[in-house]
Design goal:
- By secondary structure, the protein is an alpha/beta fold.
- The protein folds into 3 domains: 363 residues, TIM Barrel (Alpha-Beta Barrel); 53 residues, Alpha-Beta Complex (Oligo-1,6-glucosidase, domain 2); 75 residues, Immunoglobulin-like.
- Helix 10 packs parallel to helix 13.
- The protein is globular.
- Bound molecules: alpha-D-glucopyranose.
């Protein structure tokens, strides 16, 4: 029986103890009636977030943008989109959040800008423009076709022809998102100054977008075809991104970005990293730990929902962490379907139990704390370009980005206008106000669990050991610190299951159950899909 993180660590950094909460700003709270959330809306809801019990807010992009990719196409890295507010509102948000001990993390999008960014407008204006080389331009092949076979993540070729200057430019995502040329030192310096602009204002760190794509093969070699059934095939890709992702040169850039953050005190560096195999994620911690504090672990986004599969996913991860590397878990974000939809309504509290009791930093997605589900959006009403460009797939992201459900009033208290995406039909029952009033609600489950996670060192810093031999549907593990022993047990099955703990304790007591059951003793019978957190005496 292997124990992970056996000794605990003294003097944890703030982010090692923190729970992160992602706000998709267009959908959190509107205050000016345009149907789109704004920064004042986030300010108005800070007390809710304090009451929920999270520590840090990561806000998806709020910068000026033509919104081709809903803000991930940035037209000015150092300002706020008027739709969200202005720099004064942002400064107020920072001050109000810090006054409540909440940290603010911004999204930083280095791989590409908007095609409307003044840098790109200059770059495409002529081949002689001093900013020409700030983006990635290549000649057509002799027959006029793109320079190589690279495909864009959101469909089609990654190359767009520019009629005026008679060359192709590279876009890993949409044509409206041209890739910056990070082999040009002027780009590097300008983009580091963007970090400094926000760090000077007082932001507590960055979540760095699409970092695995940052550097591309200097020789522009063709990518090989995907193997059927491989990880990449799942994303609707035709090619394996051998020459367009995870290039070793990217790690050098990450190290340097990290040095910029280290010019300031106590800032957190989070990377949007993902790799089919955990082993390929580890280099993003840096060597030794000079890369990301939190290289996002997305392997749990499509986790198999059965006990042995989940155990393997956790064990495989812990087994390859570098010395001192701190794990993290993500079960939901703005790019994948809602966790209550993916794992099933009956399991969504158990996902929360896992997320908040495993050893590792949790990142929550707004609305998951009330069990929000995907909203079905018919093809003709889709607005996410990924969903529109790849209609044959289920990759469209509108369903998981719908407005937060605050109460049962019209438009769920999100807006007085017309919401930019439809609200869930169930919002009159599934909303914050209703769940605050219901002791047995999902929201009250999360609130209790977040308080336990914060107050019990065993949960945020304790050792982690699986408890073997509990049969097929049960997953059980112990967390232990300073003599306090906790045990978590999840029933993945649709039938009652009993766990016998007599070899571990004389008496255990329930601290929290997904079903709010309350037992003590040495054997516990879990209801179908129930998870429990116990204190072992
Ligand atoms: C990241 C973001 C996603 C965005 C893409 C391009 O994967 O999470 O929402 O569309 O990068 O910026």
């Amino acid at each position: 029986m292997k124990t992970y993180h056996p000794n605990g660590t003294n003097n944890l950094k703030w982010w090692q103890k923190a729970t992160f909460y992602q706000i998709y700003p267009r959908s959190f709270q509107d205050t000016n009636g345009d149907g789109i959330g704004d920064l004042q809306g986030i300010i108005n809801r800070l007390d809710y977030l304090v009451d929920l019990g999270i520590d840090a807010i990561w806000i998806s992009p709020i910068f000026p943008s033509p919104m081709a990719d809903f803000g991930y196409d940035v037209a000015d890295y150092c300002d706020i989109h008027p739709m969200f507010g202005d720099l004064d509102t942002f400064d107020r948000l920072l001050a109000e959040a810090h006054g409540r001990n909440l940290k603010i993390i911004l999204d930083y999008v280095p791989n590409h800008s908007s095609h409307q960014h003044p840098w790109f407008l200059e770059s495409r204006s002529s081949r002689q423009n001093p900013r020409r080389d700030w983006y990635i331009w290549q000649d057509a092949k002799a027959d006029g076709s793109p320079p190589n076979n690279w495909e864009a993540f959101f469909g089609g070729s990654a190359w767009e022809w520019d009629e005026l200057t008679q060359q192709y430019y590279l876009h890993t995502f949409l044509p409206e998102q041209p890739d910056l040329n990070w082999r040009n030192p002027e780009v590097v310096e300008a983009m580091y100054n963007v970090l400094r602009f926000w760090l000077d204002r007082g932001v507590d760190g960055f979540r760095v977008d699409a970092i695995i794509c940052l550097m591309k093969d200097e020789q522009f070699r063709d990518n090989p075809a995907v193997q059927p059934g491989s990880f990449w095939a799942r994303w609707g890709n035709q090619l394996e991104p051998r020459y367009t992702m995870h290039l070793p040169e990217t790690r050098q850039q990450i190290r340097q970005m990290r040095q910029v953050l280290d010019e300031y005190e106590d800032r957190v560096h989070i990377g949007e990293t993902s790799a089919p195999e955990y082993i390929d994620l580890m280099p993003y911690y840096g060597d030794p730990l000079d890369g990301y504090d939190i290289p996002f672990n997305f392997n749990t986004l499509n986790a198999p929902w059965y006990a042995a599969g989940m155990r393997a996913l956790i064990e495989d991860y812990y087994a390859v962490l570098p010395p001192g590397g701190w794990p993290n878990f993500v079960f939901g974000n703005h790019d994948v379907h809602r966790l209550a939809t993916r794992y099933g309504h009956e399991n969504h509290r158990s996902v929360g139990m896992l997320l908040l009791t495993l050893w590792g930093i949790p990142t929550m997605y707004y609305g998951d704390e009330i069990g929000m589900e995907d909203v079905f959006i018919p093809l003709e009403q889709r607005i996410d370009p990924w969903g529109i460009n790849k209609p044959e797939t289920d990759l469209g992201r509108d369903p998981e980005r719908t407005p937060m459900q605050w109460n049962s009033s019209p438009n769920a208290g999100f807006t007085t206008g017309k919401p930019w995406l439809p609200l869930a039909d169930n919002y009159t029952q599934v909303n914050v106000a209703a769940q605050l009033a219901d002791e047995g609600s999902t929201l009250n489950f999360y609130k209790k669990l977040l308080r336990l996670r914060r107050s019990l060192p065993a949960l945020h810093n304790g050792s982690f050991t699986f408890v073997d031999g509990q049969g097929d549907d049960l997953l059980a593990y112990q967390r232990e610190a300073n003599g306090q022993r906790l045990l978590v047990c999840l029933n993945f099955g649709a039938a009652e299951r009993t766990i016998d703990l007599s070899h571990l304790t004389n008496r255990a007591e329930t601290l929290l159950s997904t079903h709010f059951t309350n037992h003590s003793g040495t054997t516990f019978t879990l209801r179908p899909h129930e998870s429990i957190l116990l204190q072992l005496n």
